[in-house]
Amino acid sequence: MVLAAGMGSRYGSLKQMDPMGPGGEAIIDYSIYDAIRAGFGKVVFVIRHQFEEDFKKIFSVNRFGGRIEVEFAFQELDYIPYGYMIPEGRTKPWGTNHAVMMGQSCINEPFAVINSDDFYGKESYQEVADFLRSNEGKKDEYCMVGYKLRNTLSDFGTVSRGVCKMDSENYLQDVVETLGIKRYDDNKVGSDDEGKRTALDPECLVSMNIWGFTPEYFDYSAEIFKSFLTENMDNLKAEFYIPYVVNKLIKAGTIRLKVLPCEAKWFGVTYKEDRPDVVEKIRRLIDSGVYPEYLWA
Description:
The protein is 26% helix and 26% strand. By secondary structure, it is of the alpha/beta class. It has one domain (2-287): Spore Coat Polysaccharide Biosynthesis Protein SpsA, Chain A (Alpha-Beta Complex).
C-alpha cells in the first residue's frame, strides 16, 4: 500500500510524480521495483480524486510491464463513519492511518505500508516480506522497519520522526512523534520545540512509515478512529497517524510489533532543495548495479 494522497505542501508540487531517474522514474517506481523483488504481488495506491486522472496516466499497470497487480483507493475528508460530522473549518483528510483504512476493500492478505515520497532501500522491503511470510496464518503480529536517526536527516530543514522505544527483544513499546529534528553546527542531532533544544541519540531507531500488517488491522483502526473523532472534533489539525493506532493496540495488549533494524539510508524529497541530492543518489545506485538504468525497460 502506497500512501500518495498528500500534496506535499513543503515541497511545493505533487512530488509523488516528480521524475528522479534517468528514464523519468519517480521514487514510487523504485519502491515498486524493490517490492516486486521482495515478492509482493499487488500495489494499492491511496490517492485523492482531484489528481486521479493525472496519477493513473503515469502509474497504471502498463507502467510496470504487468509485473504487479495495480489497484487504487481514495482518501477524502468526508470518508468518515456514519453518524459523524466533518468539523466546520476542517479542510484536509485525517492522516496516515485514515489513508490506510481506505485500502480495506482492496486488501485481504498480509500487506506493507509505505509513503510515496520516501526511498527506503531494497533491504527494507525484503525485511518486511520475510517477516510477513514467517508469520503466515498468524494475527496480531506486525512489524516496522527501524532506521538509525542519523540516516534519515535532511540537509535543508527539520524533519519529524517517530522515535522508537523497544524491549530487549526489539518489540515496540512506544513511538514518540518528535518534531523539528536536525543536525546542528556542532554535528550533534537534536529536536527544537519552541526554542528548546533536546539532544537525540543519532543511533536510535526511528519510524519512517514502513510497516507490515495483517488484515485485522483494518477493523482495529475503524474502532479506534471513532473514538479519535469523538475526542478531536474541536481540533481542526488533529491527524489520525499510524503510530497513534499502533501505540493504542500495543498498550492494550492486542498486538505485538517487531522493530526490524535496518542499515539502509533513507532519502526523500521533504523540501524542494532535496531533489538534486535524490537524483544524484539514485544515479550512484544505478552505477553500482543496485538498479538497472531504466527500471521498466
